[in-house]
Structure formats: C-alpha cells, structure tokens
Amino acid sequence: MGKSTNCDRWGPRRRGGFSLLELVVVMVIVAILASIVTPRYGKAIARYRTTAAARKVAADLTFARKRARISSTSQAVNFDVANDGYQLPGVTDMKTSAANYSVILSSAPYKARIVSASFDGDENVTFDGYGVPDSGGTVVVAVGDSSKTILLDADSGKAEVQE
Fold this sequence. Notes:
Blueprint: E1 7-8, E2 11-12, H1 20-71, E3 75-80, E4 85-88, E5 101-104, E6 113-118, E7 124-127, E8 137-143, E9 146-152, E10 159-161
Antiparallel strand pairs: 1-2, 3-4, 3-7, 4-5, 6-8, 8-9, 9-10
C-alpha cells in the first residue's frame, strides 16, 4: 500500500464549505426576496384584519337584530367612531361580565379603525321588536389602505359585508 496523502487522482481534495462569494450571493438573493415579500405580507395582513373586523361588525348587527326579534324589544347598537368601537346596551359582555357588550376594533386581533358609521345621519341604529332597524346605513372599517363597507338594509335589517 502506498502513503496516505490528501490527494486523489484528480488533484487535492477540497474541504466542504462555502466560499465568501457564495455566501454573499445567497445573502443578496435573500435580501431581494425579503424586500419583495415584506410589503406584500403587510398588505395581506391588513386585508385579513379588515375583513375580520367587517365580519365582526356584520355579525354583531345580525345578533342585535335577532335579539330584538326574540325578545320583542328594541336593541340598539351604538357606534363610537372616535374610539373605534361600538356597544350593545343591555347585552352582557361575556368576557368582562359588564352590563354592556362592547367591542373595540382598534385592539387585537383586529387592530382596525372605524372610518365612519352612518345610519341616516346618526352613528347609532336601533332594531325594533320585529328586528327592523330605525334606518339603514353603512359602517366603514379600515386597516392601513384596506377598507370594507358593511351595509345595513333599511327594510330587512340584513347586514352584509361588501366584497
């Protein structure tokens, strides 16, 4: 047998690893991809939060309508645009056991703002004992550049998110 050398028949063996140039190229590619993906990810999150907040408002308007019909009494939904929230007076909040169910859209998980709430010039809507609102209207919620409008039909009281 011969001597053991660090050579084979094609030349010296190379040790495993990456050269500095290879590492720099990979880092540049990762930086380019991150600069493309990050803004798109942020916009996707904003669209998701806007949709979730709009669905929450529509669901609570539907809840208020059904509660009014079941109890045969009126049920108000009072929007507070300045504080990005709304309240259902007389409905117990399940989280805090407070007398009035309230939602603050600017807090997690929505982190949204109420741009406007307009029900025939008023920020509040009241469903009568038949579930009919005193007026139709719209609520606009937004996160960043993304916004959604919730329509409340004056005749049926049906709330739906415009897509």
